[in-house]
Amino acid sequence: MNRIGRRSFIMSTTALVGVALSGIPAFAQEVDLPPQDARLPENPLIITPTDRPGAQGGTWNHALVGGGSLSMLIRYQGYEPLVRFTPDWSGLEANVAESYEVNADSTVYTFHLRKGHKWSDGEPYTTEDIRFWYEDIFQDPEAPSTKGQSYWQANGEVAKIEIVDETTFRVVFASPNGFFAQGLAWANQDQLTKAPAHYLKQFHIRYNPKANELAQERGFESWVALFAREHGLDEDNVHFQNSARPTLNAWKFTSAPGEDTERAIAKRNPYYHKVDTEGTQLPYFDQVVYQMVADPEVLLLKTLQGEIDMMDQYIATPANKPVLFDGKQDGDYDFYSLKETAANVMVFQLNLNHTDAVKNELYNNIEFRQALSVAINRQDLIDAVFVGQGKPAQPSINDSDPLYNERLATQFTQYDPDLANKMLDAIVPERDGDGYRLDPSGRRLSILFEIDQVRSTFIDMFELAIPMFQAVGIDAQIRTMDRSLWETRVRNGRDFDASAHQFGANGGIAAMLDPRYFVPYSTNSIYAPGWSLYFRSPDNPDAIEPPQEIKDQQQRYRDLLATGDLAAQQAKMAEILEAAADQFLVFGVSLPPNGYGVVKNDMVNTMPVMANSFGWPTPGPSRPEQFFKN
Is the distance from CB of 428 to CB of 476 less than 8 angstroms? Predict the structure, then answer.
């Protein structure tokens, strides 16, 4: 991607004269905006379209499933960090930042913002926004927000910010942090581009002495609660539910999810900082319209009817593929391919920090977890749910990656109910009249797996797995719930038995950045919420000090994050994976087969093959701002 000065670029291209300057676009006329030249930064980011340049206009028809799927918006319109992953995931490139440099030992990162860059309401985006986020959100003792920000630490110490001028700032670490730029690029982690100071200051007591009164007028107990709601950085589900907050994204909600129960609408950001090679300001689409659908079945029907322009989440399952294939002509769509990067198709996760002392002790018994693992006939699950695609495996690294650890991938994947019974007899030998085992307190040994109801493949696998657990005397049950409730009870809760999820990463840098099943380090390590909090904030009263072997594993991860040398990174990650094999914290079903998605035939500039990852938030790095329709 090339970068030249805004004015020289505009003067040197005839496309702008014909497309933009001869008449203000329709969206500009509606709100009496200044001309394009005044809306762009001095050095806009020039995007070379995947296939060909397009024109402004049209609607991207999309959908959200249930109230808890708002985190998917990161994938569709919310991926605008300072530094982003390239479309082929081969490296990093400047995005909101105009450029950046890293010193030799990875202790100082210098960022240069774009002069003249503006928020969606036309207010300047400068280092004042950086300072405000760091001092008044991230490090404010009264209202701290640290979710997903552990990459700001090196050797347990948080980096400092140095403001140089209006467009230049430095992030300074006391010791090396070799992954900071990758941390900024990872999915939803960079908050430096999401905190408009000019808007948020009205809710902060430091800038508005009447902030408490304002909060109470809006039904909040104090300014702290209202401020957290307004910046929305603590919860994915909250960040997008505010049409008043300015954004740097390509589209801004005019009717946000939750403000309308039937659909959400995001309109073009007239101050978006990117243009194509012909000078047309991006995004091409005037708006993104999300239908709010109740469940994956409704989404599947709408896709078959041609109402959805692009989708893979929730519907692109192996079981649905024949149906979607047969509907291609009537729905006027085709498929794209997804290279799967998740560590497993589904990971069983017992709550190792359970509030029930008896269950906590039992779940922390490694042989108990191993017994449950061999009680599962993985091949039956693979055959039934994934049409035979895949092979039994634990959450692990794929066998083509240099980090592959065979023991981690294959141990306790055999189906052996006799061995499971033998191991369980040594731990919980007593049974009730129905044949179910009794825990050490004399209660029936029940495990309730609480899962997100829109993950249809999880439900299908549990239908087969539950009888397998019951066959060895475990009263296993499943409870499905809306994603928003799952986020509250499981990801942010402690009082649950177990859950199941997927994602993570199965190779390379991605696995180093998201080792959720190998190291309890973030809210994604839902099997150990207290230990994960200890990694991020050991002094937090809700943190739980883990046993020494887990503390050692967390230190190995800190050591990995401190190095920028690739060979050293590989060696340290190999140590982490070997220790993870020893600890056997979770167990899974299969490494995922490659997947697919559905895209309408008139969509242009989409990629035929993409990685499937939340860290590389599919399809975000493929640059949806340059999608358009024929």
Answer: no
> Which residue has 């990093």 as its token pair?
92
How far is residue 34's CA from residue 579's CA, in Å, rounded to a whole number? 59
How many whole angstroms separate alpha carbon 500 and alpha carbon 506?
A: 17
Give the residue carrying structure tokens 């047309």. Answer: 280
Per residue, what are the HEC states of 413-437? CCCCHHHHHHHHHHHCCCECCCCCE
d(CA 188, CA 169): 21
Pairwise CA distance, residues 535 & 522, whole Å? 8
Task: Read off the pLDDT of residues 16-66 as tens digits, 9 standing for 90 and up.
Answer: 333 333 334 444 445 689 999 999 999 999 999 999 999 999 999 999 987
Both tokens of residue 392? 């039994």
Asked if residues 195 and 132 have their Cβ atoms less than 8 Å apart, the reply is yes
What H or E segment, with its residue span, contains residue 46?
A: strand 45-47
Helix (H) or strand (E) segment spanning residue 275? strand 274-276
**Running DSSP on this structure, what letter comes out for residue 393?**
-
Task: Indicate if the alpha-carbon torsion angle 117, 120, 125, 130 is positive or negative.
Answer: negative
pLDDT tens track for 561-601: 988 888 999 999 999 999 999 999 999 999 998 999 999 99
Q: What are phi and psi of 523, to 5 degrees?
A: -65, -15
| Cα distance between residue 386 and residue 379, in whole Å | 10
Cβ-defined contacts of 70-74 (< 8 Å, 24+): 70/236, 70/237, 70/239, 70/240, 70/241, 70/257, 71/188, 71/236, 71/237, 71/483, 72/313, 73/236, 73/240, 73/257, 74/187, 74/188, 74/236, 74/614, 74/617, 74/620
Look at the block and give the residue holding tokens 């895209």. Answer: 599
Q: Retrieve residue 328's tokens.
A: 């291609």
> In sequence order, which ranges of 278-342 are alpha helices (DSSP H)?
296-304, 321-326, 328-331
String of DSSP letters for 567-595: HHHHHHHHHHHHHHHHH---EESBPPPPE
Single pTM value for the model: 0.81
